[in-house]
Automatic annotation (TrEMBL):
It comes from Weissella oryzae (strain DSM 25784 / JCM 18191 / LMG 30913 / SG25). It comes from the Bacteria. This is Putative phage tail protein. Pfam families: Phage_tail_2. NCBIfam families: phgtail_TP901_1. InterPro entries: Phage_69_Orf23_MTP, Phgtail_TP901_1.
Amino acid sequence: MAEAIYGKDHILAFRLWEDRNKKNAIKLALQTQHSWKYESKSDSTETKDGAINSPATATVSLDIEAVASLDDVNTFLLNAVKQSKKLEVWDVNLADLREDGKYGAQYAQGYLQSWEVPAEVGKLTQIKTSMNIDQLPQDGAATFTTDQQDEIQYAFTDTTPVAGDGGSSK
C-alpha cells in the first residue's frame, strides 16, 4: 500500500553557488510551507484544418514561507535577493532514508526573485519568497547531518546543568 507524504518531512537547505566548494548547505529555520510549481505552456497555431499545439519547455519555480527569525540564514537569503546571487536548493525528504544513510531529495539551482516580510499586529512575522529555477530539478539522495537534524528539533536534555553554551545535550 502506498504511504502518504507529509509536508513536515520536507526540509529546504540552501547554499550560495559560489560557496559550493567550501561550505555545507544550511537549513532555513521555522519553515511553514514550500511549493514547487511546474508550468509548460504550449503555443497554439490556427490552421485551416484546426489548431495545432506546439510543446513548450517547462519552467519551474519554488515558493517558500517561513516564520522570520534573527539568524544568519535569513540574512544570507535576503542578501542573495539583493545581490542577485545564484543559489543551490535541496528539498530533503526526511521520511525517505536510504540504505546508505542519505535521504531522498530534489536538487535545483536558481535565483530568489523576492523577499517579502509583512509584519501584522498580534501575529508572527512571515517571510515569503519565490525562487526561479534554472532548467529542471534533479532527483537524488542528499546527506543531512545530525547537526542539521538537531536544528529541526531540540534533543532531550537532562535535569542537571548543561555544560558549554547552554544548548541541548545528546
